[in-house]
Specification:
By secondary structure, the chain is of the alpha/beta class. Helices cover 19% and strands 21% of the residues. The chain has eight helices and 18 strands. A hairpin with a 7-residue loop joins strand 10 and strand 11.
Length: 430
């Protein structure tokens, strides 16, 4: 069974509490504090496993918890660290925060392993709190709490090209013709119930990967039929091959079909409407020669002025298929080698309640700069890609929500003044 979506709960380990104890030995009536530190909680780690191609396992196991750190002991004994938990997922899985639907990480490209939630630090034992005036401290530091998240896992196939079209237009036949994929083929609607991948080995090229996206009908973007379940697999593709039944063997209008499917793609994700498309006018072997109108001419007249090429083909005989594939390869070469990666939108380490570390906002008179620093700021900058639009927007919202912008204004910052954060300088504009 194919599964490409799952909802799970993950929790890192709690840090072990520090221990309160005092050295008690014969002839040492007033020994000093010797409470040990608590152990570190285990991390939640996600790792790509090339042997997996489905999320079916997550339908049976929905809760994943790392081990808690053990508390410290007497005689300066440190508690044992909690065990990390490593969760194996298929390549191409996008991990999202379940409530907001925001992306935490995309496990594709070079991203093979990530520590999603860090375990809590162990607390210090009372040995750390002895001073000249407090030689017998009776308190220790508790371990940091665990972090927990509800996650939505979505498997988005890694494919260069997506095949779209209404059921029974010949997508599966086309895929089996041009690749080594062997989908089940029959003459009825929704025969393809799973997305299929195939590799095109085209002479003189490096080849490319095609994904057959099944079940698209009108209303798919709103959840009608099976199309909504599979539309996510086309989000990574760089080129769309739109297959239509040019012969109208089921009484359908191929021009209307193309507009209907494009409407569904745009409704699901407006970026899909911007992807390069080519039209494969299939079943030309079934076109009636004595027909009053030429469906291929109608398709070309309707779509080629907008820059969408129409290729008459027969997926059954293979006629016209090679020119179509070479054109798709040209478009892919123009698109570049960079894979489609979904940018991070949600940052667990900085989510509300996870980071209460301090920060400072100061004015450096000598440098004539405002300086913002502290562990919370350093962590935020480490997690944020400021080169991306989403990352920079997150950075601006972080400064606003934490009250840093308000503190800068209270210090008298004006437009054009410089703000320095760990080697990075920004000009302030309201």
């Amino acid at each position: 069974m194919f599964a490409d979506r799952a909802k799970i709960y993950v929790r890192s380990g709690k840090g072990g509490d520090g221990h309160v104890s005092f050295r008690r030995e014969k002839y040492v009536p007033n020994g000093g504090p010797d409470g040990g530190d608590g152990g570190r909680g285990g991390d939640v780690i996600f790792e790509v496993d090339e042997g997996l191609n489905t999320l079916i396992d997550f339908r049976h196991i929905r809760k994943y918890k790392a081990g808690d750190g053990e508390p410290g002991g007497k005689k300066n004994c440190r508690g044992k660290d909690g065990n990390d938990i490593v969760i194996k997922i298929p390549r191409g899985t996008v991990i999202k925060e379940a409530e907001s639907g925001q992306v935490i990480t995309d496990m594709s490209g070079d991203n093979r392993r990530i520590v999603l939630l860090k375990g809590g630090r162990g607390g210090n034992g009372n040995q750390h709190y002895a001073t000249s005036t407090m030689q017998a401290p009776k308190y220790a530091q508790p371990g940091q709490p665990a972090q927990e998240l509800e996650l939505l896992l979505e498997l988005k196939m890694i494919a260069d090209v997506g095949l779209v079209g209404f059921p029974n237009v010949g997508k599966s036949t086309f895929l089996s013709r041009v690749t080594n994929a062997r989908p089940k083929i029959a003459n009825y609607h929704f025969t393809t119930l799973n997305p299929n991948l195939g590799v095109v080995d085209l002479e003189g090229t490096g080849g490319f990967v095609i994904a057959d996206i099944p079940g698209l009908i009108e209303g798919a973007s709103e959840g009608v039929g099976l199309g909504h379940e599979f539309l996510r697999h086309i989000e990574r593709t760089k080129v769309i091959i739109h297959i239509v039944d040019a012969a109208g063997t089921e009484g359908r209008d191929p021009v209307a079909d193309i507009y209907a499917i494009n409407k569904e793609l745009e409704a699901y994700n407006p970026l899909l409407a911007e992807r390069p498309q080519v039209i494969a006018a299939n079943k030309i072997d079934a076109i009636y020669e004595g027909a009053d109108t030429d469906p291929i001419a109608l398709l070309k007249a309707e779509f080629e002025p907008a820059g969408v090429q129409v290729f008459p083909i027969s997926a059954v005989s293979g006629e016209g298929v090679k020119p179509l594939l070479y054109r798709v390869n040209e478009i892919l070469l123009q698109s570049g080698d960079e894979p489609t990666i979904f940018e991070q939108e949600y940052f667990p380490e900085l989510a509300k309640g996870y980071s209460d570390e301090p920060y400072t906002v100061l004015y450096d008179e000598e440098a004539d700069e405002y300086v913002v620093e502290g562990p919370r700021i350093e962590k935020m900058l480490g997690y944020t890609n400021l080169d991306s639009e989403k990352g920079f927007t997150f950075f601006q919202n972080f400064l606003k929500e934490t009250g840093i912008l308000e503190e800068l204004e209270n210090l008298g910052i004006a437009e054009g003044d410089t703000v320095r954060m760990y080697g990075l300088s920004f000009d302030y504009y309201k």
